[in-house]
């Protein structure tokens, strides 16, 4: 459970580095990194729920 606490800061830093390679405006870098973090988290949550439901009912 404690490893989940590291997910947000580590993933956000990775997203910041990837966006910094594409853009120069710090505000836009932070905004796009936050959006990408939200999308990645959403995809992981939906995937986890689907795997849970498949394992429980199939």
Task: Note down, in words, how this protein is organized.
The protein has helices at about 5-20, 25-55. The mean pLDDT is about 95. It has one domain. The protein is mainly alpha-helical.
List keywords for this structure.
2 helices, mainly alpha, 58 residues, elongated
Task: Give the gist of this structure.
With 58 residues, this protein is an all-alpha fold.
Mean pLDDT comes to 93
Q: Helical amount among residues, as a percent range?
A: over 70%
Which sequence of SSEs, written as H and E, runs from N to C?
A: HH
Helical stretch count?
A: 2
**Whole-number total of structural domains:** 1
Number of strands: 0
Q: Beta-strand percentage?
A: under 5%
SS-based structural class?
A: mainly alpha
Distance between the termini: 27 Å
Q: Outline, from the CA principal axes? A: elongated
Low-pLDDT segments? none
Rg over CA atoms, rounded to whole Å, is 15 Å
Largest sheet: none
């Amino acid at each position: 459970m404690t490893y989940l606490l590291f997910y947000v800061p580590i993933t956000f830093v990775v997203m910041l580095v990837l966006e910094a390679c594409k853009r120069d405006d710090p505000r836009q870098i932070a905004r796009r990194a936050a959006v990408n973090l939200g999308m990645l988290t959403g995809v992981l949550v939906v995937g986890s729920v689907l795997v849970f439901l498949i394992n429980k009912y199939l």
